């Protein structure tokens, strides 16, 4: 049987306005304990460009910069079984979502959900239900999503503009 994977704790500051939701951290991210730990993932490069911080800064500095811009990061899945890092490899019957009711109750400043890719949105809708906040699905920052960086950046810029 495939090992049960456990996701990471959310990255959240005092008054988040936007919650970016991935599906489940990659193998590299789980091993490092850092969101978007694959250096080929465009998440930190995109958010650094949008919010004016160094995407290669130490992880705690990047997290602090993101939180200072009222952006929180989490994943839809709390646990699952998966071989490798691809969302398509997650065993469908093994998916357990994070507790969004408790998260939303604790963070009432949230105004919008941003899904980092189609799998995050699909699994949220299937396991949690229709989003209770306005939401948008953006192109995945994963290197498996072959869209040009400039196009990804443009989509993310439009969604995260104040």
Automatic annotation (TrEMBL):
Query: Where does the Uracil-DNA glycosylase-like domain lie?
Result: 16-154
- An example Pfam family from this entry, by short name, is UDG
The EC number(s) attached to this protein equal 3.2.2.15
Coiled coil segments of this chain: none
Checking InterPro entries in the record gives: Hypoxan-DNA_Glyclase (IPR026353), Uracil-DNA_glycosylase-like (IPR005122)
Which GO molecular function annotations are given, in alphabetical order? DNA-deoxyinosine glycosylase activity
Q: Which UniProt keywords apply?
A: Glycosidase, Hydrolase
The signal sequence is: none
Name of the protein described by the UniProt record: DNA-deoxyinosine glycosylase
* Species in which this protein is naturally found: [Mycobacterium] fortunisiensis
